[in-house]
Write a structure and sequence with these properties.
single chain, 207 residues, alpha+beta, 3-methyladenine DNA Glycosylase, Chain A, 5 helices, 8 strands, 19% helix, globular, DNA-binding, hydrolase, DNA repair
Amino acid sequence: MAIQSKRPDTFYQQHDTLTLAQKLLGSELVHDSPEGRTAGIIVETEAYLWGDPACHAYRRQTTRNAAMFGPPGTLYVYLIYGMYHCVNVVSGAIGIGEAVLIRALEPTEGLDLMRARRQERYLVAGTKSKPLSDKELCSGPAKLVQAMGIRLAEHNFSSLTQGPLFVSSPFSAAAAEIVTTTRIGITQGADLPYRFYVKNNPFVSKR
DNA sequence: TAAGGGATTGCCT
DNA sequence: GGCAATCCCTTAG
């Protein structure tokens, strides 16, 4: 296993949100949990900006979006549709509610643990019997939260620069081609080109 | 205080 | 491809 360097505070401080959303592509998200390590290369992101009607911080700071107003490199985790969670990397200055949504990972480590976490719900429900394929583990914002063992109570407000959940620099600096397009699942600001993904990567949630 | 709705997912037709 | 599931937060009254 190669030595991985944790992205420092300056990585999150020096880039504006749209740039950070692209810089995060190719970086690896790592979680060293008590159950073991899971990790994946970030292959799809979306930016949510100040003054952007789709941004959770668009109106004002509230209890739900408070983490977005923290320092860059903070995690913002929220509940969506009453049953799933999504994770964001907070960006922009303190007091400015901007963030980058992590939408998909290419799994690199701990795939069995990911599978176990993802299938837990099905095993309980007893509906799904077939093991999930590698592509089904992290190809969506709520999927990767499950697979990585990210939880609202534990990780909202936590920092990516200190602690067991962090972003590492890529192993190879091979510049992948980035596709820029519109964001998924939103109604407001649907025409803004704030979604980025690695071209031709099969682990991206949607083409 | 009440009611609407969402940065999704997976099952069903 | 369409749609239900399922909560809590936010906004309106």
